[in-house]
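Much of our argument rests on the idea that a fold can be written as discrete symbols. Part of our work consisted of pairing the sequence of a single chain with a tokenised description of its backbone. The amino acid sequence and the backbone structure tokens for this protein are reproduced below.
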Amino acid sequence: MELYIGGFAQGKLEYVKRRYNENQKTEKLFVKVIDCADPHYKKMLLETECDVLILNHLHLWVRDLLDEGMEEEKIQTTILSWIKSNPDAIVICDELGNGIVPIKKQERIWREQTGRLMIELAKQAERVERILCGLGQRLK
């Protein structure tokens, strides 16, 4: 698993696609993007047959599960289980921990839950990069 993090609109998905398009010069790869901003993403989570699987906007999946009333521990278990089933997945997530702490409790919980999940994913990932202005900085 690879993890790519960065702020909103910093070019994370484009960076990852560019990285894998360079690899396609020698072989043709089927790249599938599951975008958690898509209303049908949960169905797509079950259809993972491809050469390169990219899960974009992971933080929105966390928010959806919180909004459904799922307990925080169960959220982490659910997502980590999906990652375990898709060990070669590329995960992209916005950084939520910078800036002003939200006033609303639910927003703080979402931010904290996403942060805890990112810590665990970073431990498990083979590669971790932070993307800023479309440029990658390798952390691991």
Strands lie at 2-6, 31-35, 52-56, 90-94, 127-132, 135-138.
